[in-house]
Amino acid sequence: MVDLKLSSFSPTIISNLRTSPLGSVLSELRRVCQREHIDAVMTMGDYTSIGATDRIEDAVMVMDGIINDTIGGRDIPIFGVPGNHDVSKADAVEFGDVGKFKHLVDAFGKYRWRPTPTQSFVRYEVAGADGASLTAYLLNSSVGSWSKSLYPEGMRSSIFESDASSEPLKLVDEHLFGDSLPKANSVDTLLTQVYEQLDTPYFRAVDLNDIATQLSEARKATLVVSHHNLLPQYTPRVSYFGEVLNAGYARQAFLQSGADVIYLHGHIHDDPIEIVTSPEPGTGKIFMIAAPALPSGFNKITTFFTADKRPFLIKVTFFRVDRSGRVISGNTAMSRLIPLIVRPEDLLRKDVHRLWKYITQELPESDRGIFSWDELVEHGRHVNVSEAEVEAVVLALHCAGFIEIHNFSESFESWRVEIRK
Ligand SMILES: [Fe+2]
Q: Which of 197, 295, 364, 373 has its Cα between 20 and 30 A from that of 326?
């Protein structure tokens, strides 16, 4: 970015000064897909803006080229959900509530992305290493976008029968409570106003009930992916339908299923991780992880599994653009660890047991204090636990309550591991 005060200045110099945060993010995404073992890419919707659906295919093509470039010969499965901006008025009028997603469906099909949910949810098994897999439900929260039947009768004709790019529609009460409101300069066309103020996000209740039933039968941590947030965003949102209409119902359905739900979403252009719990016995938790808008970065999510292939811990690594426009990651405070609900005995895989036995019984007592990362790697070598496996083993011991990890929020090389007395 450049703070340009002189528009007549040399374009070449300006161009040489300019940085591109989006370009940095896409380069980093390509690097991660090239160099690391990535089992799947989840995209959170809003591939375009205010219904410019003719741009969706280009967006999908660019993302696909970065994630699975043909030179690299990769074939990482890519998933995605519809965003409210991926629907146009013209498509909603012409093709109806399901058909209006046709541009998205066609683009996904052309680039062999996994089918996106339009009317009903879709369920996938995301395969990982060693036969482990994570169930993922993809859910459409944008079924209400541009749905004619949802708008008040008096507004339908002005919205759907007039030229949306001309007459602005006055939806804002300028004298609410006697206060003079700031002029909304950016809200200047009917089209923009409708998108900003009458986006009507909701989930089909039948989808929520079906997913909750399946979650309560499986009782293991599961991904649910949808475009909209389940809790109000940090920045106050002043609009008519600023929240998912049945977000509270969705939260209850997930909690009462008894399973842990890792809920991935976008929409708010912010990146909080929030956890919802209930004091009711037998309930699960909802871990809500928001993806930032792509020019700000992306998240990498790593799942750790028990011996019987149940997820016991989620690690979220942030890749974010800093003030210089470059992507930073991997340093301190750039990852978060989220333990899931599992029985402690399920955590004691054979490799976990071997290292635990070694450090608590076979080492001289004087060496059993606090371990550095290098010491743990060294001890792992003695019992056939590779350096790559030590992180998962230490995290399993931590979740089982056997050890304490000091500097837990920092990268694992900074950890100091202490045996609990
Ligand atoms: Fe959105």
A: 373
